[in-house]
Design goal:
alpha+beta; nine-stranded antiparallel sheet; 9 strands; about 25% helix
């Protein structure tokens, strides 16, 4: 994993929750979301195919994600999502997330969708003492 993606992945992993912004009929929609993990230079996420967020991502795959860490530094990540029908990724998500596993039960569940971001941009900033950083990953 490249150094910049490691910074982003570590910040997302250290935040209890991140917020994912999509566009729906030309209007912004923001919801709490959970980053799953970084693998092969990609940030992985999961959702349900039947959810509005999935339809919004399919219609307009450009997103911005924001997370705030325990040190009050915030991270913004922007990029284009790519859906993948990857059983191994689904199994890894289910193995690590009891709540998701209780809902979908199996990587073969027809409603479970996974997607990733790669080649995005990020901005890390915070209160005094946290040097701002921006870049591409």
């Amino acid at each position: 994993m490249n150094e910049r993606l490691q910074i982003v992945a570590d910040r997302l992993a250290g935040a209890a929750m991140c917020f994912l912004a999509t566009v729906d009929n030309g209007k912004p929609r923001v919801r709490p979301f959970q980053h799953q993990f970084a693998l092969d230079n990609k940030l992985w996420f999961g959702t349900g195919k039947s959810k509005a967020v999935c339809r919004q991502l399919q219609a307009n795959p450009w997103v911005e994600i924001c997370a705030v860490g325990p040190d009050a530094a915030w991270l913004r990540v922007s990029g284009q999502v790519i859906f993948a029908d990857d059983r191994a990724i689904k199994e890894r998500i289910l193995a690590g997330q009891e709540l998701i596993r209780s809902r979908y039960n199996s990587a073969a569940h027809p409603d479970l969708a996974v997607f990733y971001l790669e080649h995005g941009t990020y901005a890390l900033d915070g209160f005094p003492g946290i040097p701002p950083r921006t870049g591409k990953f």
